[in-house]
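Budget justification note: compute hours in this period were largely spent on complex prediction jobs such as the one shown. Inputs:
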Amino acid sequence: MEALAALWDGAFGSPFAFWSATLVRATPLLLLGLAVAVAFRAGVLNIGAEGQLLLGAAAAAAVALAFGDAPRLVLVPAMVLVGALAGAAWSGIAALLRRRYGVLEVISTIMLNFVAAAMVSWLVRGPMQEPTRVYPQSSSFADAAHWPFLLNGQRLHLGFALGVLAAWGLWWWLEHSAAGFRVRAVGGGARAAASAGGVDVGRTISRVFLLSGALAGVAGASEVGGVTWALYEGLSPGYGYTAIAVALLARLDPRWILVTAVFFGALDAGAAAMQRDAQVPSVVVQIVVALVVLAVLAARYVHARRLAQRAAPETA
Amino acid sequence: MTIASALALAGIRHRFGHTLALDDAHLTVAPGTVHALLGENGAGKSTLMRIAFGMLAPDAGTLAVQGRPVQFRSSADAIAAGLGMVHQHFALVGPMRAVENVALGSRGRLDLTATAARMREVAARTGLSVDPDAVVATLSVAAQQRLEIVKALVRGARVLILDEPGAVLTPDERADLDRWLRQFCADGGTAVLITHKVREALAVADAISVLRRGRSVLEAPRADVDDDAVVAAMTGEALRASPAKAGGAAAIRGLVPTPSAEPVLALDAVTLRDARGVTRLRDVTLRVARGEVLGVIGVEGAGVRELLRVLAGRLAPTTGSVRRPLRVGFIPEDRLHDAIVPAFSLAENLALADAGHARGRLDWRGIRRATADVLTAHDVRNGTADRLAAELSGGNQQKFVVGRERRVGVDALVAENPTRGLDLRAAASVLAALRDAAARGADGPAVVFHSTDLDEVLAVATRVVACFNGSVREVPPPTDPEDRTAYARALVGTL
Amino acid sequence: MIEFGVLLLPFLEASLRTATPLGFAALGELVTERAGVINLGLEGAIIAGCFGALAGAGLGGPYAGVLAGIAAGAAVAMVFAVFVLALRADQIIAGTAMTLLALGITGTLYRLVYGAGGAALDTPTLAPWALPGLSSLPGLGPVLFTQPLPTYVLYLLVPALLWWMHRTGAGLALRAIGEHRAAAEAAGVRSQRSRAAAIIFGGAMGGLSGATLVLAQVGTFNEGMSAGRGFIAIAIVVLGRWSVLGTALAALVFGAAFALQYLFQAMDWALPYQLFLAFPYVLTLVLLALLRGRAAAPLELGRQD
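Corresponding output:
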């Protein structure tokens, strides 16, 4: 009971809890949830959002540290762009491995997650370590690299606005553009898309992989630019994996990802408070994430059965 | 003691979801006879036989083998009771050796040497020989069917159930099979032949049963029935004419374009090798003009599949040139995988046809309107633009696909086994749509049509070509329209 | 150069030791995949096995730890089997969820039971066990036969699996299910039962893998200590071309890749250690790309019901 109260207070208990904890944690989940969703919509099982986020964060941090004296109006967009490119480059490896060599992307993206973690670990102890060489982290960014806050006195930052914009844009693109329709068609039935529609399935999949990585990379840039203002090793407490639940719970619909990302953001924020106030470990969130995914799978089964009963049978 | 029946099913009822697939179906097969079970696609033949073989449990009804009541929990029980089944899509594991396929289902230690010995024993006794060490995927279709029978016999089957065994065989191979079945029954075995082809059934059977919409409607000795009686029982009406006799060909034969007409589809010296380097089409030259329905015949692996895809622009030839309109309508055989996305709405499935080259924004309102037009024009029942394709019956899905592809294929339309799995009514309407398209003459598309059912091809086509071993040659129309020998020989490359 | 020669035998010994948990996990996954199911929950079974081994060993000694690890891995696989077989869930997503679930549950339990910082360092472990006679054979004798018990179990598992898959009806049935399930069913094989058994066996082997990791290698438990070994094991199966011997061999290669860390630490080269941390993962990617193709994969692999 005490733990639940702590969870609620940590997520919604005060304006600060909501605007500065819940929504700040929802921000990477939103961008990553979109990244996962767009890939899944094409049938690309990108489990590598975690690694793509780390690459985006590292690249954006490098830009922030190298050009700290640039004006914010230039520096922040540059961080977004470079983060996106780095994330796309990282997912591009998996895309290439799948298209050229037939490597299952689930395996390759997970492997790349480990490599990315090792890479960041090396960066913050090597070339990007702060000058005193004591802590495994980079120097703090100059003010110009701090992403603007959206509200006075709250920690909600530009990244959230980007996420909302991306959600809307992605929804429109998937539903109303020809390119987005191709993505859905490939995910719905790659053979039909190729045979009936003349869709280049390989190219569509590679492109969506890059888009997914770019979104995850922006999430990384948004974390270093809006929250930590430096590159750390433990930058993401597994956001990339939580994002899978965020996307699936929203049934891969970008509009619903806005809702589920906030839900999991609240859970994350609440769990942190719970660990502080009630000594319940915050890894509990991972259990909830897994249970949500399993519940979605079970619900799909029920739905599929209902659909099967409604449909007239094929030849017996 | 003589037993009245080798296999008896009575009062069988089975339900799939909300659909009653079988209702009071029965079948009594006398020992030592070939018994044909007839019915249209979807009448419940396969369901009934899967129940007989223990693959499905009936909701109600009883089974008896050699006069003894039985209850099967799986096909293992049916095999133990002396039943054997030859499945339409052979139940063989392709990458494994023949002997392993025969041993499959045994328990404990494997003794493949003993199994191979038993296969040779069966071969010596029945003349059905298959190399035990051959990898199944490398065997010909006829050899695979032989292996299926050997598999059943090695396990001691006395009652064989054969599901559409003729569908994959050439006429000669089919005659061999019929001869073998009669011998098998003369030696005391019993065979149940499942088919929807009346001619095939009457040629070999001692007795006939007919299922219609899950009910038994006829059971009689062969001598007591003729073609028309069986067809009437299958369709539930005194049929005026089967699609084979619908006279469509005669009606459009007059529309054959003059030789000077510019062909819409043209292949010149086309050769196609697949990814493994096997030649699928060799040196094919072909012309199809507007108003023509080019019928394509050929057994599995003869190159029909590839020819149709090259004509439809779905495959690029290795060498040679193809002239075709930018967009060719294509009705592929495997509807659910190659033509539609079942989880998409019908409007989305319509848009699918343009997905490859559409740019910018999609006009969903216009697409919905076009979908509604297709649904009305092609009599798709229960369809609305927003309904999921998965919710339609197979026949209505196919009518939708035909409508969509006719829209796309203004100049050329390629159809591959478009009536597969449809009931007679839906099949007739699909064939009619193809005929209509061509009957527009110079305003209509060039139509290429393939069916595994020769009758269907002859009913629709204005001209027939046969594929054999990757080569394509024209079959000149016989002087007697009932004479099929030329077609049969073309199928095996001896024309 | 002298240094290298001195280090070679210890390196081989370490390779074999690190290969052992990978071998268990990969051979278990091999059986699962030959039945047509890809279980990405293997990582979860391994971490569950790690935690089960820790708890079991604390209560009843190292052998109890091994059994508890096996049971924990099998339990994770059982849940996966329910989702994949009974609820016809997507194998990839269900497997990923099982991994997340097991990581979450073990992490939570570990912190609740052992406290946030307190690692259980007094876990009883399985010491290497020199086989009399064999271990004093010249050359590789000491490397092969001075190993903890699980390695010997692995030596026996490889021929046992080979025999079972190719010389028994059940093994033939399993392979047939993976290639063409309908055909196997038509031949009287109960495919759902076989698949469930194959999944649970794979999970149990994953659990044994985790138990080995804790009791014969690391000596304690860390959150997330499975460190992707489950996924690497899946890659090992691909590299081993879905054959028992190939898989065992590929596991050895990866054991060596992990053991490189120790070698290079011992040789004191001035390279960042993260390079060696990342090496097994990079190696996985490179080898997967080089040995391209799913040609040898069971045809039904990953197919949803």
